[in-house]
Amino acid sequence: MEVEPARRDAAALDLELLQLAELAPGALRENSIADALYAQWLVLPETTKLVKSLIEDAKTGAVLNVAGSSTSTNAASSSSLPSMFPAGSAPPLSPRSTSGSPRVMRRGSGAGPSSLGSPLKLVSEPVREVIPQFYFKNGRPPTKDLKEQCLSRTDHLFFGGEGLQIQEFRSVTKDICRLPSFFSSALFKKIDVACTGTVSRDAFVEYWMDDNKITMDMASQIFEILRKPGCTYLTQDDFKPVLKELLATHPGLEFLQGTPEFQERYAETVIYRIFYSINRSGNGHLTLRELKRGNLIAALQQLDEEEDINKVLRYFSYEHFYVIYCKFWELDADHDFLIDKENLIKYGNHSLTYRIVDRIFTQIPRKFTSMTEGKMGYEDFVYFILSEEDKSSEPSLEYWFKCIDLDGNGILTYNEMQFFYEEQLHRMECMAQEPVVFGDILCQMIDMIGPENESYFTLRDLKRCKLSGNIFNILFNLNKFMAFETRDPFLIRQERENPTLTEWDRFAHREYIRLSMEEDGEDASNGSGDVWDESLEAPF
């Protein structure tokens, strides 16, 4: 018997709650409490009956089972042991089941499996769950069915076994690889590393299927095709072969084939726009993560299906290129392909302030690539005009935020904003416009943006608000500021009817119409039917 644990448990009992009758004083000692309880239990009438029944069962050879259920006739008496509490005075039992009691589990731990029918089952070995492989260093291998389908189409296109030349490879790029057709040359040269001028069936299968290119998403496939060996990013030069093939094969760009100089300008503009929108780090190194997060892949797919190049508004529209190039050419008075402060201040009918132009030429928002002191090149101008004409985009907000943040601490304070607004206020007075003091403007800007801290604006505050671009127009673009104050309901309705168009899309469309009308006017005055602008030296 477990006498010692029973004695320790009994020592922890409250003697007043036990209500024991006529206990001797010596029985209250710690070591005699259990003996006293046992003696008190033995003299109870119910205990005498139980002991007699057990003796009878032992004589007849019946199985003794006091604690559990018994098959003997005395099972009813054994299932209800005598209580040491008076009738009606017992406290309520705990709602917790005794099957989970640590004391009960300890007592039955050495007796084998529980007789109470525990749901736990004994197992000889732990069950091991096999987790399928989810990371593949060289890409997920294709399934058997996918590989067989690809091999069947490959055998059909490579029929004869002599390999394909570059002009015959477009069907492989389009039908098997399911890539835009103008990636054909880049893919061909990636496989034909020895520059033999021919790609065999085995070489294609090794590159496309054995290297698991077939199971990659399109962004990863394009990234692997364009990147140089050993590089983990794409540069502007990596896109030039794709643009070259696009200009040579797309029906919407056939009219440029006689002017290679403008083919080059178009390709440069497209690449600049791609890196402006997608290369968010601004370091000229386009990563796979940036490529996947951007919308270039969708634009490439649309470009491969759409014959009208101007319907592909993202990056590739020729009308957009025409507007950018003509705007640059108008400002570049000496046509040395460089513009300075005096040239840029004329942009938009002198809409910009001198202070913001000075800030741009400090190269704080972006380092110039012109390599000429105090001069902005064509690429720099592309970044500027995209930022100026669409202040709702994140690259634009980042560009102008850096301009206004004079101390570079990541917040726009009221003193910084007032510094730029002072020139706006002076210009309004010179133009006989009713001036609006900075205090009133500041209240409007706070209500418009709703910053987390009303003492300053953060870039996060501006990116959360759709109207944040108007903040910069208020500070340094007078024409757009006045246009915002006197908004035309007709233009507002147009914007609501075409919510997918960006501010840049609307600006480029308006400017292209204006430039084309000027072009038509000059041709009519010159009596020429050739649609060509000699002053701009750009095709129309």
From TrEMBL:
Sequence segments annotated as region (Disordered): 71-120, 519-540
Every EF-hand domain range: 392-427
UniProt keyword list: Calcium, Metal-binding, Repeat
Gene3D superfamilies in alphabetical order: 1.10.238.220, 1.10.238.230, EF-hand
Pfam families: EF-hand_13, EF-hand_7
Keyword Phosphoprotein listed: no
GO cellular component entries: protein phosphatase type 2A complex
Biased composition (Low complexity): 71-88
Highest taxon, organism lineage: Eukaryota
The keyword Metal-binding belongs to this UniProt entry's keyword annotation: yes
Molecular function GO terms recorded: calcium ion binding; protein phosphatase regulator activity
Ranges of biased composition (kind: Acidic residues): 531-540
Protein name: Serine/threonine protein phosphatase 2A regulatory subunit B''alpha
Designated gene of the protein: LOC103626168
